[in-house]
């Protein structure tokens, strides 16, 4: 690719220290528009810290994040979100006292300036798509873990973003819901050309969705390539996979 | 407001319910005596105070203890403008609302990053400051001597005030309901529930919190300004902590964070307190105990009794 390329998401030399722990150290990565990139690595490698730096939860000690070429330096979380960056949390975060319907509608209203549609109608069609109809008027805190993960993802798709950063969207949920989430990701990627950076330990899903993966270890980018390429590297096997992938 | 928003059906139902209730209360003078009407008028005043505090504390999670001070800002602004400059109520009352809103804006900004108990203490300190000022600068405010305020109407009877406060309560309640059902209302509840997630969705939580603080203060100022012209004599007692406690008691007994709560909590608590007044401070202690028990077992108070009735009333909408 030419050097004039505008990346959908780009980090340059990101560094973040928590006390004595250097959580991310000089992390630079680039994700092309419309790409679905996997981000893998052992626990404690700095993946979630990277997600938090990209989405503005933490400010980096050094380095910069660019979304579609625009620096996010000094922007608050809500401003970053309004630029079209959507995230999901590893520990599912929803508005527990609000119903499923209200969660979806709130997600729409928060970024309604980016969408001309009707919020109530869009909410109804999302409820239908996710088959959450029976639970539409149930408080989110009463849902099961899988349903909560599905709802969190559905909220992220109410107003299509340009770039999604998903922190372990598939952990601890049943295969049917996993498939629904994968379908939503593929659909938004194809129809809207949205870019994804997905943190996951589910190698079969990563292989299915992500042509390229980035491996993080000990706060650094350790390798990058197709899953099968990086899975052959001795340091990735030793530090993360344990054994070669089948 | 953006074209992509329309009110949910529940909003129109609430407006109908408010209008029906107001119509029923409009008939009360046919059966109630002067004293009862007077007590109800004060009850409406507290409905407005309690509902606007509930907007801030119950919906947005900002447990302010300065709400009575904002009512006093409204009351004293209009009272002092009249006393010193001879300004009429139609100038004084809007001025009181604006000043209360501005104070709310500033205080809301200052306590923005404070949580729970810290916010409560900081707002309480603000209220005490206003209290001390009104007492100390007695040459200007008349302090404990009391500031006499020109009444709204020339008649002595309670009837015009009864209808004024009934109408005021109706307008405020419909306004608050519209706010709660608007995007801002969803954002308020989102912030109370999970502020980090609210931000991650793109909600400007800073702006929402300050806006709600200012709006809720303006409504308190509005109620206070009218109250001054009704009661005729203002004193710094208006910012006694027991006033704030009363507002909290009304909301918690009615239902914290529910729309109906402060409406059904305020008037009965005010009426019972009026009749229990002869027992002095014990009055408040009894209510404090009820609040503690309710907060432990059911935050939804009396409103939770009405919720099933309300749902059944509109159940046919869902077939």
UniProtKB/TrEMBL annotation, chain A:
Transmembrane segments: none annotated. One of its GO terms (molecular function) is ATP binding. Keywords: ATP-binding, Nucleotide-binding, Transport. Coiled coil: none annotated. Residues 9-243 form the ABC transporter domain. GO terms for cellular component: plasma membrane. SUPFAM superfamilies: P-loop containing nucleoside triphosphate hydrolases. SMART domains: AAA (SM00382). Belongs to the ABC transporter superfamily. PANTHER family: CONSERVED COMPONENT OF ABC TRANSPORTER FOR NATURAL AMINO ACIDS, CONSERVED COMPONENT OF ABC TRANSPORTER FOR NATURAL AMINO ACIDS-RELATED. This is Branched-chain amino acid transport system ATP-binding protein.
UniProtKB/TrEMBL annotation, chain B:
It is found in: Cell membrane. GO terms for molecular function: branched-chain amino acid transmembrane transporter activity. InterPro entries: ABC_transp_permease, LivM-like. The keyword Cell membrane applies. The chain crosses the membrane at residues 42-59, 91-112, 117-136, 161-187, 208-227, 247-272, 284-310. One of its GO terms (cellular component) is plasma membrane. The keyword Cell membrane applies. It comes from the Bacteria. Keywords: Cell membrane, Membrane, Transmembrane, Transmembrane helix. It is a multi-pass membrane protein. This is Branched-chain amino acid transport system permease protein.
């Amino acid at each position: 690719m030419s050097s004039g390329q505008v990346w959908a998401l780009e980090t340059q030399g990101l560094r973040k220290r928590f006390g004595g722990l250097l959580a991310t150290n000089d992390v630079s990565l680039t994700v092309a528009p419309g790409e679905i990139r996997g981000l893998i690595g052992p626990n404690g490698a700095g993946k979630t810290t990277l997600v938090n730096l990209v989405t503005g939860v933490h400010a980096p000690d050094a380095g910069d994040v660019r979304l579609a070429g625009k620096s996010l330096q000094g922007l608050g979380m809500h401003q970053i979100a309004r630029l079209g960056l959507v995230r999901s949390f590893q520990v599912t975060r929803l508005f527990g006292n609000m119903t499923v319907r209200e969660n979806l509608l709130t997600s729409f209203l928060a970024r309604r300036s980016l969408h001309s549609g009707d919020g109530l109608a869009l909410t109804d069609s999302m409820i239908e798509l996710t088959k959450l109809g029976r639970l539409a008027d149930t408080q989110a805190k009463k849902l099961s873990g899988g349903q909560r993960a599905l709802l969190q993802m559905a909220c992220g798709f109410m107003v299509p973003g340009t770039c999604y950063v998903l922190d372990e969207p598939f952990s601890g949920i049943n295969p049917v819901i996993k498939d629904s989430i994968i379908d939503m990701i593929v659909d938004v990627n194809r129809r809207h050309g949205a870019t994804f950076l997905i943190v996951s330990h589910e190698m079969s899903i990563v292989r299915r969705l992500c042509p390229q993966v980035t491996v993080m270890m000990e706060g650094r980018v350790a390798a990058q390539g197709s899953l099968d390429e990086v899975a052959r590297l001795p340091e990735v096997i030793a530090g993360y996979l344990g054994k070669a992938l089948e | 407001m953006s074209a992509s928003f329309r009110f949910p059906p529940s909003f129109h139902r609430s407006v109908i319910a408010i209008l029906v209730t107001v119509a029923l209360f409009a008939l009360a003078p046919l059966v109630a005596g002067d004293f009862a009407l007077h007590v109800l008028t004060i009850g409406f005043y507290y409905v407005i105070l309690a509902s606007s505090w509930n907007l801030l504390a119950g919906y947005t999670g900002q447990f302010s203890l300065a709400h009575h001070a904002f009512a006093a800002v409204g009351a004293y602004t209009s009272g002092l403008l009249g006393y010193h400059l001879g300004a009429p109520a139609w100038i004084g009352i809007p001025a009181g609302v604006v000043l209360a809103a501005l104070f709310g804006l500033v205080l809301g900004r200052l306590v923005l990053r404070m949580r729970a108990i810290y916010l409560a203490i900081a707002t309480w300190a603000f209220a005490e400051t206003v209290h001390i000022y009104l007492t100390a600068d007695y040459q200007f405010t008349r302090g404990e001597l009391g500031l006499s305020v020109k009444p709204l109407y020339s008649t002595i009877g309670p009837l015009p005030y009864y209808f004024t406060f009934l109408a005021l309560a109706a307008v405020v309640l419909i306004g608050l309901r519209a706010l709660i059902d608007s995007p801002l209302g969803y954002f308020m509840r989102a912030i109370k529930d999970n502020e980090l997630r609210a931000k991650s969705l793109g909600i400007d939580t800073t702006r929402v919190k300050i806006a709600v603080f200012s709006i809720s203060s303006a409504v308190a100022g509005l109620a206070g300004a009218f109250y001054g012209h009704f009661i005729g004599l203002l004193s710094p007692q208006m910012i006694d902590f027991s006033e704030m406690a009363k507002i909290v008691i009304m909301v918690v007994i009615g239902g914290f964070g529910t729309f109906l709560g402060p409406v059904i909590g305020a008037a009965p608590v005010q009426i019972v307190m009026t009749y229990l007044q002869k027992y002095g401070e014990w009055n408040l202690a009894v209510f404090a105990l009820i609040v503690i028990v309710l907060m432990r077992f059911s935050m939804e108070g009396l409103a939770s009794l009405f919720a099933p009735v309300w749902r059944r009333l509109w159940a046919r909408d869902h077939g």
